[in-house]
Amino acid sequence: MGRGRQKAKHTKVARELKYFSPDTNYDALARELTSAESAAVDAERLEEDLGKWPEFSSDSGETRTA
Fold first, then answer.
1. CA distances from 8 to 4, 16, 17 (A)
2. Residue ranges of the alpha helices (H) in the chain?
3. From CA 1, how far away is CA 17, in angstroms rounded?
4. What percent of the chain has pLDDT over 90?
5. Which residue from 62, 65, 66 is spatially nearest to 53, judged by alpha carbons?
6. Where are the domains of the chain?
7. CA–CA distance, 58 with 51 (Å, rounded to integer)
8. Nearest Cα to 66, choosing from 53, 55, 50, 58?
């Protein structure tokens, strides 16, 4: 295959990708972003991490100096 045909195919594919717009399910996206369950999991994980590394906790009252 010559360079002209190859370039034409790449151009065609690039154009299809550029103008391709899939249908977005905004209701499902909103449910995922506002999920109460994920917020609870995130809060629990934050507490675990702060327990492991107390120097990053604002409750500790200690200041870290370099």
1. 6, 12, 14
2. 3-19, 26-33, 36-52
3. 23
4. 20
5. 62
6. 22-57
7. 12
8. 55
